[in-house]
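so ive been stuck on this for like two days lol. basically i have the seq below and the ligand is pyridoxal-5'-phosphate, smiles is in there too. i just want the complex predicted, nothing fancy, no docking runs or whatever. if the output looks off dont worry ill sanity check it later, just need somthing to start from for the group meeting slides
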Amino acid sequence: MKYYSTNKQAAKATLQEAVVKGLASDKGLFMPEVIKQLPSSFFEEMKDMSFQEIAYVVADAFFGEDVDAASLKEIVYDTLSFDVPLVHVNDNIYSLELFHGPTLAFKDVGARFMSRLLGYFIKKEGQKKVNVLVATSGDTGSAVANGFLGVEGIHVYVLYPKGKVSPIQECQFTTLGKNITALEVDGVFDDCQALVKSAFMDKELNDHMKLTSANSINVARFLPQAFYYFYAVAQLHKMGIKKDIVICVPSGNFGNITAGLFGKHMGLPVKRFIAANNRNDIFFKYLQTGVYSPKPSVQTIANAMDVGDPSNFARILDLYKESHEAIAAEIGGCTYTDEQIRETLKNCFDKTQYLLDPHGAVGYRALCEHLQPGETGVFLETAHPAKFKETVESIIGKEVEIPAKLQAFMKGEKQSIQMTKDFASFKSFLLKE
Ligand SMILES: *Cc1c(COP(=O)(O)O)cnc(C)c1O
């Protein structure tokens, strides 16, 4: 399979090139040349298949031409060694719990898959050592660091703003050791991101070492997120719910929802999607006006969605051939304030005993407000509520227990390297690596 750039200027790339590069040379995002339709027999049999079996069929459609069957199967099965249950919340609303992975975030799926696919290219295809640079305000760093931990031929540098990530998040990427280096930057998240961007553009550095990113611009991180959309629909089929399925995705950079839209293009029977936003409402405004105008992000309590210029918007435009009408026909939108998020989380807990995290709360509320009679709604619960312990506790007035998996990280010893936000010092550090 060849991958083209959404900017249409760069030459087409192989899967290996697309994964190793991350971004195309014309700064566009890679898109697979063909989106394969899956046979109707698969959609009928899906309800009796396991998550791993379903995911392998989808992975084969994406990557089967480029990765041998036995290796691809191993990558898929190893990535998805945890469950993604569909839990009934109330009425016709279900939560797809994506937080049962190692760092309790949906990003575990993409990060693990990408690390294993890169590992495959390094071992089988003789790809030379790859260095992953990731700037994080918390969640991405922990998922990527844990996903890539111990994978041979890859080193990960996590850049995070000193004193600005929660203690639970910090220990998820500073206590690992091995091929993970945590860089504690004296600055804010934007400074970390600026350092990473400058590194990707620095010729001397790129001649010295192979650098790549691991955010949702990378095809190997974003496409595997399609797996659980199929599994969600399969679980509804098993309950006898076959039509008028609406899926709602709490969205920031729009990688997650774009993977779902790919699923729909492969034949997955979803009636429509809803992109749920916090106050960062750029996509919502686009749906209403047809005009896309990015702006600086504003801080909210659903902070993994504080994005003012969603990078995967380019992929959505490309998927629908730039048609605002086609996009608005398949994707609905909504935007909520922190106050509304708090109110939703509390009401849902009081009414149903189901504890949402602030991101999932945005998705749940969108379904409560926008589901039509006869429709069944699934929202993606993108993180475990304990990851936002202080916020959630202040809303429900009760203690939230930290799962054993998270607690285990807190026992490790923190190791980090102090870094200024000055690019010259970051560069000289990397040149010595
Ligand atoms: C990353 C993240 C999101 C946003 O996902 P995108 O793919 O960037 O749209 C939502 N919720 C949580 C908890 C996240 O970590």
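Residues 107-124 form the longest helix (18 residues). The pocket of pyridoxal-5'-phosphate is lined by residues 105, 107, 139, 216, 250-256, 304-305, 359, 382-383 (CB under 6 Å).
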